[in-house]
């Protein structure tokens, strides 16, 4: 088998390339310099030029096609196994074939976007000292976020929210946010948008997503069935992924930077609503129910109504499939330099605390 492997030049080339990509990913500085701000911007602009103008999500169609291909191939393999028509030589051929496929996916994923999981990131760019925080720091920032959230809640116009039912309006506001913040941070300049409604929006609850980025097509997909007050934060979060911020905590923090300076009160409300949810989850981890209870009681009535609406939405969409999808995504995050898996989303609070340490509570 080893001799057969050594004779398979295509497989050997793919193996060598995969090893080289992995070795390159070990140097965060090299990834940041040569990939994130070297190769990746060219690839991302090319993908947007190819797929950005098409109204429907090409990435979703790609996933559907991949799923059908996998089901057909698996069914055929099961039939052959059932009829005992697979010998050792055929098994080895199939193994090499699927190994080549896996290596191709690994290389394309990393070259198109995945290497961004291994960059220095926003903490380095802003000079933030992200380190473990104390209970006092967490509770202080939670109260600060709650205060900002309550301030925004008092200004939100429920009727005006309805305009975000049109994704084009949401995307345009999101672009404006990045154009505004790029004046202070040029590295956050957002290129032409590719924000689309997911083909899976109506069944998105089965997959448990609010939005997601397709690394193979450069498109950002939105679950437009989600409550409207959640979507402004999500659209800027997915745009952050398009800018090359792979990790979920970093994309959330970049979304915060973009949203907090927005001219739209709905964007500011949405990001503080999200951050408050993240902070409260971290407070619960500390086990102090008296603090979390007091914070909840001090919420603006609008926030309490939205919390109830979100809970009712999640409750209605409960299903048996979503937990398995969540577990799969949790493992995906762990494999991509995010060892805490789904808990990585809440880690945005560590970036927020580091931001307050550097710039003060007023900057929040």
Task: Pick out its properties.
three-stranded mixed beta sheet, 3% strand, 66% helix, single chain, 17 helices, 364 residues, 2 domains, mainly alpha
Question: What strand line-up does the widest sheet have?
Answer: 1-3-2
How many domains? The number is 2
Q: Please give the share of residues in helix.
A: 55-70%
Label the structural class.
mainly alpha
Ends distance: 61 Å
Sketch the topology as an H/E string, one letter per element.
Answer: HHHHHHHHHEHEEHHHHHHH
The average pLDDT score comes to 87
Oligomer: single chain
- Radius of gyration, in Å, reads 22 Å
DSSP strand tally: 3
Q: What would the principal axes of the Cα set say about the shape? A: globular
Explain this structure to me?
The structure is a single chain. With 364 residues, the chain is mainly α. It has two domains: 2-118, no CATH class; 122-363, no CATH class. It is built from 17 helices and three strands. The chain has helices at 2-7, 9-25, 28-51, 58-82, 88-112, 122-126, 135-153, 158-161, 167-181, 204-207, 231-242, 248-260, 265-286, 289-297, 301-316, 322-335, 348-359; strands at residues 195-197, 211-214, 219-222. It has a three-stranded mixed sheet with strand order 1-3-2, sandwiched between helices. Strand 2 and strand 3 (219-222) form a beta hairpin. The longest helix is centred in the N-terminal third of the chain and has 25 residues, at 58-82. It starts with a helix and ends in a 5-residue tail after the last helix. The mean pLDDT is 87.
């Amino acid at each position: 088998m080893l001799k057969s492997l050594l004779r398979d030049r295509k497989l050997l080339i793919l193996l060598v390339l995969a090893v080289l990509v992995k070795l390159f990913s070990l140097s965060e500085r090299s990834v940041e310099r040569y990939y994130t701000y070297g190769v990746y911007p060219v690839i991302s602009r090319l993908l947007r030029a190819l797929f950005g103008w098409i109204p429907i999500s090409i990435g979703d169609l790609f996933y559907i096609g991949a799923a059908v291909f996998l089901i057909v191939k698996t069914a055929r393999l099961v039939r052959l196994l059932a009829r005992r028509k697979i010998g050792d030589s055929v098994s080895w051929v199939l193994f090499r074939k699927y190994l080549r496929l896996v290596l191709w996916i690994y290389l394309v994923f990393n070259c198109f976007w995945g290497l961004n999981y291994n960059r220095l990131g926003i903490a380095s760019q802003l000079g933030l000292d992200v380190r473990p925080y104390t209970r006092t720091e967490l509770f202080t920032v939670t109260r600060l976020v709650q205060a900002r959230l309550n301030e925004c809640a008092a200004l939100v116009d429920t009727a005006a929210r309805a305009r975000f039912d049109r994704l084009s309006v949401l995307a345009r506001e999101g672009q404006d946010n990045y154009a505004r913040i790029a004046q202070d941070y040029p590295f956050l300049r957002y290129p032409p948008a590719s924000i689309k409604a997911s083909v899976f929006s109506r069944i998105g609850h089965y997959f448990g997503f609010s939005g997601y980025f397709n690394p193979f097509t450069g498109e950002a997909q939105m679950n437009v069935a989600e409550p409207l007050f959640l979507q402004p934060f999500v659209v800027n979060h997915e745009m952050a992924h398009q800018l090359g911020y792979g990790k979920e905590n970093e994309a959330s923090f970049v979304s915060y930077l973009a949203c907090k300076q927005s001219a739209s009160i709905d964007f500011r409300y949405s990001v503080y609503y999200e951050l408050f949810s993240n902070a409260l989850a971290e407070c619960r981890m500390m086990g102090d129910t008296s603090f979390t209870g007091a914070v909840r009681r001090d919420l603006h009535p609008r926030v309490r109504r939205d919390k109830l609406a979100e809970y009712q939405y999640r409750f209605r969409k409960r299903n048996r499939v979503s937990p398995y999808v969540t577990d799969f995504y949790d493992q995906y995050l762990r494999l991509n330099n995010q060892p805490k898996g789904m808990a990585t989303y809440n880690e945005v609070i560590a970036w927020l605390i580091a931001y307050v340490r550097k710039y003060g509570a007023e900057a929040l």
